[in-house]
Amino acid sequence: AKSAGRNQIAFFESAMQFEVEQRLTIERDLAEAMASNQLQMYLQPQVDCEGQAVGAELLMRWNHPGRSEVSPAIFIPVAEESGMILRLGDWVLRQGCLTLVRLAEAGKAMPISINVSPKQFRQSDFVEKVRAVLDETGAPPSLLILEVTEGLLIDNLEDTIARMLQLTSLGVRFSIDDFGTGYSSLAYLKRLPLYELKIDKSFVQDAPADPSDTAIVQSILSMAKHLGLRVVAEGVETREQADFLIASGCDSLQGYLFARPMPVSEWLETGLC
Ligand code: C2E
Ligand code: CA
Ligand code: CA
Ligand code: CA
């Protein structure tokens, strides 16, 4: 038993070491990736009850030459911790605006959602950056949706609200991403200048079979309706999920059932938009 314990410790140590090394490699490679155009933005449609695209989310992809695709679920947290998310975030914001202009030029203008990390949002000059990039690209502010998470609301609620108001006065809109997984209370939701809630895919996945997930989805929808907010469900993979969400009053749906994230050029060729 003793040697089994030792083996286990050795196993954990090497797993930890692997993780540290992987983190360092990602950090180093990410800087290189930005410089050498390995990062790309993909679009995933959000559709209405008739399957028509009514918007899209911009998601980052990293095509690393020496490696199979690295998921943003892995490299975004590394970028957050190292501070590199600020440069990545600037780039994403710009890509979002450029995409809006490109879609408008193709006669296919629609709202584009980008993910804004907490560190990015809290930069002292974030509002200025958004204003500058909107001006410079000529992107229509009302079509730019900033997805933020509930984590932003935990501390400095007053500062967060003030900043959100400055941004909404530029014309951009806010969506709360992964809604239901973090710190949520009706009291603060009411005070935020929000446009939309995104129901996290963990609740969508097991609905409508799982009664508690079904109840969570339904109560998010009823709360949103009372607050006058639009609701998007993410991670919709089956027809049953889609039918249930539409019947429950969801405004739009995003997920593999409709389309995977794809390059913008591909998006312009689909019949979706
Ligand atoms: P997220 O913002 O919650 O994005 C939704 C994730 O769900 C995306 O994963 C999307 O590809 C995936 N997804 C879409 N439909 C389905 C479905 O039907 N089933 C399942 N199982 N998954 C689905 P992705 O692209 O791997 O991104 C992971 C996370 O990385 C994002 O989660 C977001 O937190 C972060 N991320 C991605 N791009 C950016 C970015 O440009 N900036 C920042 N700050 N974070 C980003
Ligand atoms: Ca998102
Ligand atoms: Ca999400
Ligand atoms: Ca998520």
From TrEMBL:
Record carries keyword Transmembrane: yes
EAL domain residues: 23-273
Record protein name field: PAS domain S-box-containing protein/diguanylate cyclase (GGDEF) domain-containing protein
Signal peptide coordinates: none
Keyword Kinase assigned: no
Phylogenetic classification of the source organism: Bacteria, Pseudomonadati, Pseudomonadota, Betaproteobacteria, Burkholderiales
UniProt keyword list: Membrane, Transmembrane, Transmembrane helix
